Amino acid sequence: MLRKELSVHTYNDLLNHFPFRHVDKTQVDTIASLTMQNEYAYVAGILLSLDMMGEGRSKRLVAKLKDNTGVIELVWFQGINYVQKAMYVGQQYLLFGKLGFFMGTPQIAHPEIENFSPQKMAGKPSLEPIYPCTEKLKARGINGSNFGKFTAELFTRINPKDLPESLPQNLIEQYKLMPRYEAYRQIHFPSSEKNYELALRRLKFDELFFAQLRMNLVKLQRHRFSRGNIFDKVGTFFNDFYSNHLPFTLTNAQKRVLKEIRKDTGSGRQMNRLLQGDVGSGKTMVALLCMLIAADNNFQSVLMAPTEILAQQHLLSITEYLKDMPVNVQLLTGSVKAKARKKILADAEDGTLNILIGTHAVIEDKVKFKNLGFAVIDEQHKFGVAQRAQLRDKNIIPPHILVMTATPIPRTLALTAYGDLDYSVMDELPPGRKPILTTHRNESARPQVMSFIKEEIDLGRQAYIVYPLIEESSAMDYENLMKGYEEVKSFFPEPKFWISMVHGKQPSVQKEANMQRFVKGDTNIMVSTTVIEVGVNVPNASVMVIESAEKFGLSQLHQLRGRVGRGADKSYCVLLTGNKLSNDARERMKIMVATNDGFAIAEKDLEIRGPGEIEGTKQSGALNFMLASLVNDKAMLEVAKITVENLLNTDPDIMLQENEPVKNFLVSQKGKTKWSKIA
Ligand code: ADP
Ligand code: MG
What is the pLDDT of residues 345-381, one digit of tens each? Predict the structure, then answer.
């Protein structure tokens, strides 16, 4: 039963099934003193009545309990038979549960019940643990309060040897940590508030420390044992481009990242680097410069984009940058015709091809390279682990891999979710960027918003209007999109205005065609779902209207907004929402209006939504902390990170006597971890 309901399989699981709070059960509440402020109620009294009420689905058992000050109501919707047999009118009971109020009367649904006696009260520990529990277990008489008896029983059978120390003594002293065995005892059965806090601190530290340690060990392993192609020279491709073709000066961030990559690619080990840069920070140029260095060292490169349209845009901008230079750049996507494809494949195989740009078509088995040395993956979260592995297999010595993403991830998340990748950040935009003016408007302001779009179109600009698509298959969402499209059409009639519409249900040919019309400037407005989210570049577009903006998460809103502000003198983002907003939604709109900084937004997103929901980290499994929180324990995470780095710097193989506890703990955990490698 415990196994199925709570996945508690072993003693270890039981120890790690932590109470979510403790209550002081030496003191009961008087019923009259209960108010809405009390989250829980703990009362003692005589059972006055016990009656079945209602029929069918609203059938319930209702009881009244009285103490010297008042009456409280108790309700059961499940497990009714059990309670009916177990409780007697006229008996004294102790009750504990979540407090509610119904028409002014205090009420507990599904309370935990104990028989009351004065002796019993005297024998209670002051802080009793309350555990997470399921309804099914409750129906069997196991509840959040008495669950502790299993854990208590376990502690009578084990001793400190069964929970050996996992950290070196010097760390325990340095950080004043509670010993591990003691911490487990105290987190379940604390002897005081203070001890509970210390226990929690110790066990959180363990979680963060070992999470970091595992990541760093993977990285260290890779650094040591993976062989990589060596790019030891900068030659004419790079130098010619840098001095004669580069249309701007690099930002300091671009220079810094280039240096970091140069260091990796010259080191003789394979690079696996994540490059984060806000929308528009110039990641493509960094990738191009790297690919030129690869060419200087007689290596080929690939640049992979998640969609055809993005791949095409990359081809356009890169061939434009490289015009008049003898670099062979080709595009390979699903829609390249057989004859052209044959030539591309031949060029890739005999080495005449320097740079291959495309969708995942570039990593299909049929595509063989003479000497693939460098691979760039743009907008990484659209690619899976399998594709990255496929890429690695493209050469005897695997190519260096640069993963680029414009979805900023907060540092704490990056450390934990991507800790086994090397990590670069471009936190600087090229000079001269025009800020995007963001406003939040209600539904009722729609006519004004439409007139505003008209003004911009009259100035020769283009506009996006984006509708949420929460579920790919949701008929409602499509209905809204279509309604919206009709409405936009009535504001902007043909032939004075032209509108493109793009959504996921269109055949890809049609989608591409509609997209292209907008990219070329043949249409004034793009009505779409979020399919345009990633990477599309239409510098002439100056307005982004986001419909039902409250339905989007922060990072998605930021991505969408990044589609404008790429050329026009001034760009605008309008967040349209209903009149009634949840507090969360209101907060999100406020943040969007207040800042254009993707990293600041990502931090807020983490605070509001929690780590599990952040794009690109969901599947990593790296965030399954039981106690630590990436939002509240940032400082501790930093300490854990530094501690791990220090430890591995002096003792990379964890061989020193003093670090034996760490080694033993790691060994004992082998095979138990839920960690999945993501790169
Ligand atoms: P992202 O990081 O979002 O992929 P891009 O690589 O598409 O950004 O670059 C956005 C725009 O900024 C492009 O038009 C590019 O030519 C331009 N750009 C890149 N680096 C610089 C720079 N150092 N100075 C000026 N413009 C730049
Ligand atoms: Mg890009």
Answer: 999 999 999 999 998 888 888 899 999 999 999 876 5
252 lines ligand 1 (CB under 6 A): no
Its domain, for residue 137, covers: 2-157
In CATH, what number is assigned to the domain containing residue 50?
2.40.50.140
Q: DSSP of 428-490, one letter per residue?
A: -PPTTPPPEEEEEEEGGGHHHHHHHHHHHHHTT-EEEEE---SSTT-HHHHHHHHHHHHHHHH
Give distance in angstroms: CA of 506 to centre of ligand 2: 24
Domain boundary, last residue among 426, 460, 494:
426
What's the pLDDT tens digit per position in 422-444? Answer: 889 898 888 877 789 999 999 89
| Mean pLDDT comparison of 27-36, 114-123, 305-314, highest-scoring range | 27-36
Is position 607 within any domain? no
Higher-confidence position of 225 and 591: 591
Q: Is the CB of 553 under 6 A from ligand 1?
A: no
Residue found under tokens 């990072």: 555
Residues 250 and 394 in one domain: yes
- pLDDT tens digits along 159-207: 888 889 999 999 999 999 999 999 999 999 888 889 999 999 999 999 9
Backbone angles phi, psi at 495, to 5 degrees: -95, 10
The predicted model scores a pTM of 0.69
Phi/psi at 599 (5° precision): -75, -40
Please tell me the distance between residue 620's alpha carbon and the centre of ligand 1 in angstroms: 30
Mutation probe of ligand 1 site: the residue of 275, 285, 534 with most atoms within 8 A of C-beta: 285
Helices (H) and strands (E) in the chain, counts: 24, 21
Residue nearest to atom 26 of ligand 1 (CA): 430
Residues 243 and 345 in one domain: yes
